[in-house]
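Sequence in, structure out. Go.
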Amino acid sequence: MQIFIASLRRQWQALRAWWRARYPLIRNYFIFLGLLLAFLTIFFWPFLNNRVFMSLRPGEAGVMWERFFGGTNLGYIYREGFHFVMPWNRLYVYNMRLQQTPHNVVALCKNGLPVEIEVSIRHRPADGKLPLLHTVVGPDYVNVVVKPEIEAHVRAVVSQFEPSELYTSEGYILNLIVQGAAAEIAERYISLDDLLIKRIILPPKIAGAIEAKLIEEQRVFEYDFRLAQARKEAQRKETEAGGILKFQETVASGGSFRDYLTYAGIQATVDLARSDNAKMVIIGNSEGLPLILNMPQDGTNPAAPQSLSPLLPPRDASEAPSSVSPSAPANTTPPSTTPANTSPPSSAPPATSTPPAASGTATPPPTTPLARPATPPSAPAGTNAGSP
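Output:
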């Protein structure tokens, strides 16, 4: 027993002596090996990241192909997260989200006219059938199955319609295409969510002819509206003319048509006199409308009568009342050329000696508002013709 223990002690001492002698060499070897491994990892990281260290992002799933264990693994689907894959195997990644694929289809209409239709296809791989999709179709299933099936059904449906019907039957066309293509695509383990028609492009001449036809139809509607408007306007004018005719008959039947015209003239004169912009002298016409002098800017006129009198001056100048003596000639000089009263007061007969007018009518007082116009501005202020 002592011999065995002594033998072990000699072997341990020999091992320690060997380790002490070769420790620097072994240490340097491991350091070099670690640096080499780090360099190879950094250099081959892009390859390892896509083949060995796999990270599946949200909305992705994977199918494993095993080189030494029967090929595609049909019983397991790799979900989101980190996965370690042997370098001799390969993990195929699929996007399980809803995808949108634009596609342009050139189809022939019922009359043989080519039409370009721009569609948008919404699709995704069928749930739980990803290994079968990878085995039967492969990762390029959009160009292999989806686009050809949609294009075939679009051409089959469009060939049943005229070019002008494509605009008004868009919803019906979509239903026919989706119903026919959904079943065919589902057999290839793909789910068709929806199909949208983004634009229908007709040849320029055909599109121009259709637009011209629609414009003419709208123009017909416009003319119908104008005719209806003209009929309504004719009815309105007919009703208005009937009312005017009835009004004139009513005025004429009472024998007061001239009085009505005089009243209308007086109203127009009053409205014009009240306006701030009325700066002219308005003199009555041959029918005897009243005389209204110029009014100041503020609308006040101290010389204006307190109320408009319906009295009209006679048409004969010899019968007009005058504030001067009857011995003076009647209206021998125009009012605008009558000079100011330059003669002495004794040369004119007094106003009290004026005899009464003929026919028993009294002469209006000299201060009446309906007297002749005042003297021109050159005459002295406060002097009136015929006054003492």
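Check: Residues 255-298 form one domain. The helical segments are 2-43, 45-51, 130-136, 141-158, 165-168, 170-186, 204-253, 257-274.
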